Amino acid sequence: MNEPPDFLVLYAVLEHLLPKERTYILGMMRETIEGGGSVFFAETPNRLIPFDSHSSQLQFTQSLPPELALRYSSKSKHQSWKWSLDQMGSNLDALFRCGLGLSYHDFELDLFDDTRLLPLAFSGWCGELLGHQAIQNDERWLLSYFNANSMPVHPAFSRYWLEGLLSKRASQFHQFTCIGRIDGDQQAPEVRAESWNHPLFLVSRGKPIVADFKFPENSSDDFEVIIQISDSSLPELLIVHFNGSKIELACGASENMWHRTKSLHFRLPKAPQSLSIGCDSGKAEIRAVIINGYTRSLGH
Hints:
- The chain is α+β, with helices and mostly antiparallel strands.
- Helices cover about 20% and strands about 25% of the residues.
- It has seven helices and 14 strands.
């Protein structure tokens, strides 16, 4: 290729490439970005997350040396994946072709020396993707590990699915995700794009959860709200008070999804300066409140 592409799409691609191919494609990503183009990558599993839900469905296999991971694959109960591995020859090339995760290390070596400087217009921490793939305990732990050890790693590399849009033409970087913290019945700190506090969650135990938000002056007049609630304790109704109004949300039966979280969506005509979330009975385990991509992940 003489000229880098204007737009490069890598949807569920990187994890199926052989090592040399990964290096080549990451180099192409770099050339595309430096040439003024954009790169979209998505659904690439993170090898630093213990459970491999993408391929073997075993614990810690993604972080094993490939030779050991190939031997250990015999213990997998993921029959369709094992069948594909066998059809391809059950060798190292087949293991990569069937899917092995990446991590920030690959991007650091072949894309940007400091992943914090990646021109990410959005990542897996943006509101829309949080609504699609709820926050997991392993992701919370990995992000807190990055922060506790002052590691120069972008938070995008703490999610199970590595995904984002890279472009130097993006008007804002890292500002689609604001990870904050809420303490029950206490005022939360102002939302700041540069804050990367690791998310936790709070069990309401029948008491309302109060979330205070402060939005930029140029905020939209139409607000999408996503409330993520664990399916381990679903009440019949969530009761949301905002700006003097009230909405009742029927939780219903939760789909049996791997992330064990139900997302409830509704829209507001104007910016909510505060939300009070309660339930009709029992307790509700609220994992996150997401408003137009500004996220409050709840903490004790």
